[in-house]
Design a protein that fits this description.
By secondary structure, this protein is an alpha+beta fold. It contains 4 helices and 6 strands. β4 and β5 form a beta hairpin.
């Protein structure tokens, strides 16, 4: 009988603590960058869904973006990209997105993010780095077809 009571008590404590942990919400503006997959998911949400919460965390301090046009190559700094993304808060793009991992290791990952729109396709080659257990986007190269 004592064993049965202890078992039910332990099960109840586990259930209560699990519910309590699940109910804890992350701080506003904090995003999960503990894995490269989470960082890629957040990058796509920022770029295609207008999500701006925690956007500063997503990009490495030396982040740069290159946009290949027909006749030009544009360079954008981290602050320029973040400012633009904040202005686009809530704007959702009408595109289908796919991801292909090109190269990966414990410290970096290179991914191709393809966004297919009705009349064109944007390809974004992103490099992610692991900075002390936090994955960040360190560079982005965009091209259009």
């Amino acid at each position: 009988m004592k064993t049965l009571v202890k078992t039910f008590t332990a099960a109840a404590l586990i259930a209560i603590s699990t519910c309590t942990i699940a109910a804890v919400k992350p701080e506003k503006g904090i995003i999960n960058l503990s894995t490269a997959d989470y960082a890629i998911d957040n990058y796509i949400a920022v770029m295609t869904e207008g999500q701006s919460a925690g956007v500063e965390q997503l990009f490495a301090t030396d982040f740069s973006q290159k946009v290949q046009g027909i006749d030009t190559l544009l360079n954008h700094s981290r602050s320029e990209v973040i400012d633009l993304l904040k202005k686009q808060k809530g704007e959702k793009l009408n595109c289908e997105t796919s991801i292909k991992i090109i190269e990966e290791s414990a410290q970096y990952r290179v991914a191709r993010v393809t966004m297919k729109f009705t009349d064109f396709t944007k390809t974004d080659l992103i490099t992610l780095i692991n900075e002390g257990g936090i994955w960040k986007v360190s560079s982005s190269v965009n091209s259009y077809q």
